[in-house]
Amino acid sequence: MPHFLTLEDVRDVCHVYAQAQLTHDEPIPSFDTRYSEKLEAALASPQTYIDHKFIHFSMPRQAAVLFYEMIKQHPLLNGNKRIACVSLMVFLSLNDRWLKTNWKELYDIAVTVAASRSDNREGMLQLLTDFIKNNTVEK
């Protein structure tokens, strides 16, 4: 059974790390300014199930859905791509995986997702799933 990110994980780990380490020229606003319903929806997306079976059955697909929704739902006033990158890494770590890539490559993928059209959701999710599948190792 996969370990999914909680709101507390995002607040206490992902947001804090991004605020401390990834602000660069654009600050990340307080967590309290988030759009609660959008963040909760993004966190719930990888956990969607029907008839007691996950719709997104593989861990790489669940990670891809989380990453995509954390960017496209735009749950924060600023820093969505940066927090999505950290959230992906934390999700993978919770599931005993590590992504073999550098931050620049991961952030470039986040920019690609942000610029993608919503009618290409499935194509982006497949691209992300393949990227995660091909670039993760067990911890």
UniProtKB/TrEMBL annotation:
Fido domain segment(s): 1-134
Top-level taxon: Bacteria
Any GO MF annotation of the entry: kinase activity
Protein name per UniProt: Fido domain-containing protein
Species, as recorded: Candidatus Kerfeldbacteria bacterium RIFCSPHIGHO2_02_FULL_42_14
